[in-house]
Design a protein that fits this description.
heterodimer, A: alpha/beta, 7-stranded mixed beta sheet, 15 helices, 13 strands, 33% helix, elongated, B: alpha/beta, 3-stranded parallel beta sheet, 18% strand, globular
Amino acid sequence: MTAPPLEGCRVLDLGIITAGAATAALLADMGAEVIKVESPTYRDPFRGWAGGPVAEPGGMPPLFRATNRNKAAISLDLKHQDGRAAFLRLVGRSDVVVENFRRGVLARLGLEYGVLRGVNPGVILASVSSQGETGPDASYVSFGSTLEAVGGMAWLTGYAGDAPVISGRDVNYPDQVAAIFSAGMIATAWAARRNGAGGCHLDLSQRELTSFLCGEAFAADADAPRGGNAQAPHLLQDCFRATDDRWIAVTLEAGDVDALRRLTGTADVPQGLAQWIAAHDGKACVAALTAAGIAAAPVLDGEGLLDHRNELWGDALLRADNGEFVKGFPFRLGEAPLRVRRDAPCVGADTAEVLARVGGYSPDEIAALVRAGAVEVAQ
Amino acid sequence: MAGRIAADCGARVIVLEDGDDPVRRIAPLVGSTSAIHAFLGKGKQIVSAREVAHLRDADVVIMDAVSVRKLRERPPIVAALSLFAADSEQPASEFTVMALGGLLDMVGDPARAPLKLGGHQAAYAAGLAAYTGVAAALCRPRVAGKFPPETVHVSMLDVVVWLNWKSVPSRAGQAKLTRTGSTAEWQVVRCQDGFVALVYQEPDWTALCDIVDDARLRTPDLALRPERIRRAAEIAAIVEERFLILTRREIHALALARRIPLGPIWSPGELCADPQTASRGFLETVTIDGRAVMMPRLPVLWNGQPLGGERAFAESMAS
């Protein structure tokens, strides 16, 4: 079998919550050795994130589990001189460091790019930040929907003539895409290093990515008004409610009008189409519209979309051994299939093993670090 | 999108255009040029699809999955894009894919139609996924001058489900998530000159109360998140009352000072003059049809430097 593409790449993951941790998770999915670094005094907040699914007593919180599989975990106190020294020793023997702390945290720990480069000139530091490393808003904090607002995307989202809309806490769209893009840039930097480019500092601004993903709007002569679901070049695009209260999404092209007339008896859009759908069962609507060659689908919720698993979609979600659904992959590799090799780790699960194998610490040295409170091993 | 990123990262990207690419006609237009075509085409060379000889010499091809199967000679790395993971004759669009992936269901007001996010988020996110898969495949060392073979399969529906992973109950019996509109914990409120996304987390509550400075928020029962969720619409109304006498810039300054994640909603046009955008050179001036317009650069600084740039853009427009 072909080796995973990032095999041989060692990543120290200071990432937390979604954007940073999910970036490193994608690197791990693609074969990198990812070591999650937490601290005896600071855990990834996702371990205790409220608002998502609740873990069974003693179980792994589902949101944390989803973004930390395929990783090892160590716990070092980066504010302790010996913990910091251990981290820098690991940096000297790693390829990538991922972080998405608030700006200034890394510098306060004395771990800014210049320091990391001092112990490893080839290191790639990926700083996945809210606004970027520099600028008057560098210290502005955000969650995904903040970025939709300040990045221009929320302005473009909303019902016609009405207020802007955000994706909200349960989607937090910019945090999700940030992980895909950041993993791609890190892979690019690692390939470039192999070609002699040396180490680098990647300054990845989530706000800029959010703007980039509606980049064409910046070139327009004037800000377009919000148009709901309408979108050029389609003649009509919207959701309509069927008689069984299901919402049906339809995209109608100019070339579909004759087919629509034959099906519904009217080419009047949107009123005629809306009335026809309102008089029919949702499933029958979709069947008839798609049979007529018109793009249509039911609006599914998180439970409904599971009905199409292994039919229309495949590896985006996977079923774990305990039957729970876990986050899968946004793409597949034909030669080296991505897979979940390991469940998310508990705090410090691999501290001793990593310090010994990667850091070269002896058992006595590790025991001394534990006694000094510089490192923590899982109980 | 995948090719655009590759071009900015220094790849020579050649578009084999089959006849008249419909993307060229998609609004918004700048003069007679589609802004989307110009944005995605930046840094690329566009040639006729008849010039298939380019395929033989390429390291990577990015194309639809059906066309991949028809290739007689394929480059070592292939990104095969499709709407669905499996073959389907079902007529579909980016919008209906978002419906099937549950993303439409999560955005908007529960009493109104499900809503898509602005722009082409499903398509662009699929492009990000394709680029990342290709970038990973390019990490393998060449053997006899060629990259080892790899196929990166990108299904837009899988990408949407992956982005929307939190909406799926991880096990049976778990509460379903859906759009909650004006009862959402995070929502959009009005201010003096526009709108602000009211985004905050548990540790931000005290700072938010300080900014709003309204006794109704400081009641002990609202100190607990479950009660705040239950009364989200009431909280938003109180916050809005205060924000209606503040501008977005003033709210931005307060949020920056108190380090809470409020989101003043800027338009793309306003962002062209935004201090943060300007200080990082995020928007580049490019010329389309003789007109100077702004476009975002690739959202990464590599050792402090942007990738891509105006020169590459000018070359692509001339091709």
